[in-house]
Amino acid sequence: MISGAHLLLYSPDPDADQAVLQRILGARSVPAEPGRIIMALPPSEIAMHEGPAGFVQSHAGHDLRGLVLYLMCDDIRAAVDTLQAGGTRCAEIEETEFGMKTTFMLPSGGEIGLYQPSHQTAIQR
What is the spatial distance between Cα 58 and Cα 61, in angstroms, rounded to a whole number? Predict the structure, then answer.
């Protein structure tokens, strides 16, 4: 059956964004096409949220459901401190019904979500 998940992030500056993600994730990687690597992700989970029908990403001739990426952490304040010490800008931390969240900025100007869940997670620790 399903053996894993592969996320694709699109960027106007993939080299710079890839370097930041590689530093942040500190994960094992394997070579892909020239100049690109595929990075391992920490354990992940997926949840369904109601959204507009037009929230899609066209890829390889198909309209795929839109995705929003949030990386998870156990201590968001410490994670933000570490990110900022490495030169990565972060938005203000917000309290929500599902935990605390922020975003961090990639060199291309894009943002990735980061949150410390207050709910039970599907990840086994």
Answer: 7
**Structure tokens of 44?**
């992940």
Residue 125, classed as helix, strand or coil, is: coil
Beta strands 94-96 and 70-72, pairing class: unpaired
The SS3 call for residue 24 is: helix
125 half-sphere exposure, CB direction, 13 A CA radius: 4
List, for residues 2-44, the tens digit of each pLDDT value.
888 899 999 999 999 999 999 999 888 999 988 899 999 999 9
Spell out the alpha helix ranges (H) of the chain. 14-25, 76-85
CA distance 101 to 22: 21
Query: Torsion angle of alpha carbons 85, 24, 22, 28, nearest 10°?
Result: 130
Decide: helix, strand or coil at residue 123.
Answer: coil
